[in-house]
Structures are given as C-alpha cells and as structure tokens.
Amino acid sequence: MTTAADEPGHVAILGAGPIGLDAALAFLDNGWSATVYESAATVAANVTSWGHIRLFTPWSMNVSTRMLARLQTAGVAPPGPAEYCPTGGELAEQLLGPLAELPELAAIIRSRTRVLAIARAGLLKHEEIGSPQRGSRRFRLLVSDPHGVERVEHADLALDCTGSYGQSNVVGDGGIPAPGELGVADRITYQIPDVGREGGKWAGRRVLLVGAGKSAQTAARDLAELVDSRPSTRVVWAVRAADPDWGEVPDDPLPQRQELVEMSQRLHASAVPGMQVRTGVVIDALRESDDGVVVALRSITGDVEEIVVDHIIALTGFLGDTSLYRQLQVHECYATAAPMNLSAALLAAAGDGPADCLAQASHGVDVLRVPEPNFFVLGMKSYGRNSNFLLRVGYEQVDEVAGAYSRPG
Ligand SMILES: Cc1cc2nc3c(=O)[nH]c(=O)nc-3n(C[C@H](O)[C@H](O)[C@H](O)COP(=O)(O)OP(=O)(O)OC[C@H]3O[C@@H](n4cnc5c(N)ncnc54)[C@H](O)[C@@H]3O)c2cc1C
Prior knowledge:
Elements: E1 10-14, H1 18-29, E2 33-37, H2 45-49, H3 59-62, H4 65-73, H5 88-101, H6 103-106, E3 109-110, E4 114-120, E5 139-144, E6 150-155, E7 157-160, E8 188-189, H7 199-202, E9 206-210, H8 214-229, E10 234-239, H9 255-269, E11 275-279, E12 281-289, E13 292-299, E14 304-309, E15 311-314, H10 340-350, H11 365-368, E16 375-377, H12 391-404
Parallel strand pairs: 1-2, 1-7, 2-3, 7-16, 8-15, 9-10, 9-15, 10-11
Antiparallel strand pairs: 4-5, 5-6, 12-13, 13-14
Helix pairs in contact: 1-12, 8-9
The site of flavin-adenine dinucleotide has 35 residues, from helix 1, helix 2, strand 4 and helix 12.
C-alpha cells in the first residue's frame, strides 16, 4: 500500500508538542504532506505531565498567529484572556487538544508511535560528509507502532520536535549518576511532583529536593506549603551553588517567576522549621538502608554528612534525546549539546551573564541548519542545556524553517 510518506514532498515531524503541532500547520499550509509521530497516547504529553504548573508567560505569548487563525477558521473559541498565564493543563486542554482535533491534523497525527531512530537511506553517518548529496537520499525512520511493531517509514524533510522534559539529568556531582543512584531509582522522582494533589505521598515524610532552577523552586514552594500544613514533614533542599542567585532577573516583567525567586530567597535566609536549605553541597553517594535512603552530602570544603530520607525529588535539568539522530550529521555544541550554530548564537547573545529568557529571539533559518541537509531540531530540544527556551521562540523557528521550504521540491 502506498502512503503519503512514500510520495515526494513529505515531512516527518517528530513529537506532537506545541512546536510539532505548529510545524505541522505551517507545512500543510506550504503544500507538503506530513506525518506527526507522537510516542504518547495523546498530543502534548510532556505539557500534560507538568499540567499542574502555571506558565510564566501569558496566552498572548503561548499561541502562534497560525494556531489562532486556524482555530478561528474552524469556529473554535481562542484560548484567553491574552494576559492570563495558563497552567500546562490549560495549555493542553484549551489549545493543543482542540488543534489536534482539527480534521487536517487529526488525519496525520500518529499517536502511540515512537520514532526510535532516523538515518539516511543507503548512507552512513561518515559518508558524503557535509555534502548536499546526502539530501538526494530520503530519511529512513525506524518507528514503533501502537502494537510495538517496528517498521521503516520515509520522508524528505525531518523536524525533531521531541522536546526534553522527561529526559532528566541525574543528581551526582559533575552530572554523572551518584554512586548508588541507579540502585535507589524507585525512591527518586525526576519530574516536578504535583504536591498539592499527591500530598499523601509526601506528607509526614523525609524528602530531599535537589536542584536550584525554576522546576526545583516550584517544588520547594509546594513542599514548604506542605511542611506548613503537615509539620511532621521534613524537607532538605540541596543546592550546589554556595551563594545561589536563584536566576533572578532585575525588574522581572514576569511576576510568577519573580515570586518564585523571592520565595527561594526567603527560604534560604530564614530558618523555616522542617524545611532546611543546604547550599554549597553535592550528592556524593546514595544507598538503601532499613530506615530509608542514606544520602551523603559533600560540602565545598569536602566535609561529608549523611542524612536519611524516604524520597528524593531530583530536578537538575533536562536534555533531549540526541541518540535519535546519531546516524545523521548533526554538529552538536560540546558545552550545551544543542545544535552548534544555534548554541553559538545563544551563547554569544547571552554575553557574560545568563540571558533573561524573555530576551530570547530566534536567529534565522541558517542558524537552525545542521550539516545534515533538510533536518532540523526545533523547540525545547533545540536549546540543549540552555533552559531559556520559550514557546514564542519555537513558533518563530517554525516560521523561519517553513519560510525556507515554501513548496516541496
Ligand atoms: C515546567 C515547565 C514550565 C515551562 N514554562 C514555560 C513558560 O511559562 N513559557 C514558555 O514559553 N515556555 C515554558 N516552558 C518551556 C517550553 O515552552 C515547554 O517545554 C514546551 O512544552 C516545549 O515544547 P516542544 O514542542 O518543544 O516540546 P514538548 O512539549 O516537550 O513536546 C515533545 C513531544 O514529543 C513527544 N516525543 C518525545 N520523544 C518522542 C519520540 N521518540 N517519538 C515520538 N514522539 C516523541 C513527547 O511525548 C511530546 O509530546 C516550560 C517548560 C517546563 C518543563
């Protein structure tokens, strides 16, 4: 049987998050046929898994003009109001779900279909190095269908929009697993817990929270509230920096983000019973004992202290799965693991200090290109270790790539 993917002018979109869905709309507009591969049962799976978290950015920044136009044409009410910051759940239910139900998208989204790997038909990674000749061979995608059956599908253009949430970093010093970490994995949560809803799981327990970014700050805020309402709960918040700046942005225009920074500063400065903030420490080792998980905390001076906890919440960042395109010629930054051109542009734009994510903009289609012709990493994954990605930037990336491929051929 011949499918759209067998015809020339076909784009494979990996991941049905906000950026993958926006890309699908853009390429359909350009006359391409498309398949959107989504590993989960429904679209926006990553957004849904942090559905209890409120975005810092309002609807006006979270919806592309293309999405709005398409919803309007279909007679679907646009999400809003424009200045309201939705939760991840609201983003999924009020925007991404309705988009995925539009007939043109519903027809091309393949849920429960994971892309396992992508390569060029008949070419290995080291062949035709940096040559446009690679573009004359179609992409070969190894996919696993809803029944777990593996098959190969083809495309002329491929967009990796698989995000990074769920691909968590580990807790050990230097970014490698702490000795014993893998052995106590069932006691570690690597995603932002919904403490309000799962209170029973955490209340009255001894919890170690690791990390200092916005995800860890969000968990710290929720755990502090739990400690307040259930004083038998004990939380140790381990932070690597001796004097963390909590990512503060001067005169922050995003009030939700500023509130988290202030809350972290307060917790750090004042002794809240039941909630200890330990700065300048790393996780040296973990081991199971009869009483719980024994955690060795090592300070900057080299002193090691052991504490015992019931659970660990590890929020030390996320990094997309780059093994997917291992057989393609993708030049990765040695520092951020993002595609090199984009990473260099982001590092240059940041200058000496960390840039505010609101100051981020897309840098044009050539910055998004990698040596592999007609292959792009878009969305959250394109930023590698840089956590400043914004939906608005992803929609701009889609505009730029779609602008360069206005017609198949
Ligand atoms: C807690 C949190 C809060 C955030 N808050 C904001 C905010 O306030 N404002 C803002 O602009 N941005 C925010 N972001 C950043 C960013 O906008 C989001 O992460 C956004 O979801 C990124 O969209 P994406 O489409 O690139 O990736 P994702 O939303 O992660 O979507 C990727 C999709 O690909 C699928 N997938 C993964 N692997 C495969 C595979 N091998 N095969 C097929 N499918 C696959 C996943 O199931 C998922 O559906 C936040 C991020 C997090 C984690």
